[in-house]
Write a structure and sequence with these properties.
Number of helices: 9
Strand order of the largest sheet: 2-1-3-6-7
CATH topology of the largest domain: Rossmann fold
Helix content: 40-55%
Number of strands: 9
CATH class of the largest domain: Alpha Beta
Strand content: 15-25%
CATH superfamily of the largest domain: Response regulator
Number of domains: 2
Radius of gyration: 17 Å
Length: 223
């Protein structure tokens, strides 16, 4: 799933809190290469407006007054297979991404309203959703640790660090900059991580999405 290189990424917002919706709209409308095409507060309005081809990404609050944002996202994605979806929630509900139906599971991101205060993270997550990638909330990822006996627990400390940054939406160049290592070193760590997790280079599946979901699946709260 990928967005054509021409034109801005069109974003529809579905958020029932007027102040938060306005803040989201201003932030995204001011970002280069993004265009807000709708900002509504209910599933009913979203179903009416977001027809196939109307938007490239939908930013969805999970808790809406007339329905559930995840169910709305599933419906919209089944209408438009290349629609990116970014979920927002006031609660830590990141695990909900593991319960998505298989036919719509790629290209969903998740950010917490309470922990994500960076505009850069929000804009990056929208851009990632537009090209079918999965971005998970970096602040929430910092609070988890691998489950004992899992494949993720077999990663070296550096591989786990790289995996967590990859799941937070950073490019290899961005990960290298963050860790002070070369992009080639990052790619070596990514390849080793994929090998340990048994993620192959199936062209039908984005390996970064698969890796992010495995991280989500095989970690739990750090005590």
């Amino acid at each position: 799933m990928s967005k054509p290189a021409t034109g801005p990424v069109r974003v529809a917002l579905v958020e029932d809190q007027p102040l938060f919706r306005t803040m989201l709209e201003r932030t995204l409308a001011g970002a280069p290469g993004l265009q807000v095409v709708a900002a509504v507060g209910t599933t009913t309005e979203a179903m009416r407006l977001v027809r196939p081809g109307f938007a490239d990404v939908v930013v969805l609050d999970i808790d809406l007054p007339d329905g559930n944002g995840i169910a709305l996202g599933v419906t919209l994605r089944r209408r438009q297979a290349n629609l990116g979806i970014l979920l927002l929630s006031a609660h830590d509900a990141m695990d909900l991404l593991l319960d998505l139906p298989q036919d719509v599971a790629s290209g969903w991101g998740y950010l917490s309203k309470t922990s994500t205060t960076s505009e850069e993270v929000l804009i990056g997550a929208v851009r990632a959703a537009a090209v079918g990638e999965t971005v998970l909330d970096p602040a929430l990822l910092a609070k988890v640790k691998p489950r004992a006996g899992s494949d993720v627990a077999r990663l070296t400390d550096r591989q786990y660090e790289v995996l967590r940054l990859l799941a937070a939406g950073l490019s290899n160049a961005g990960i290298g900059e963050k860790l002070g290592i070369t992009e080639k070193s990052v790619q070596n760590h990514v390849n080793a991580t994929y090998a340990t997790l048994g993620i192959d280079a199936d062209p039908q599946r984005n390996p970064r999405v698969s890796a992010a979901l495995r991280l989500l699946e095989e970690t739990g709260p750090a005590h």
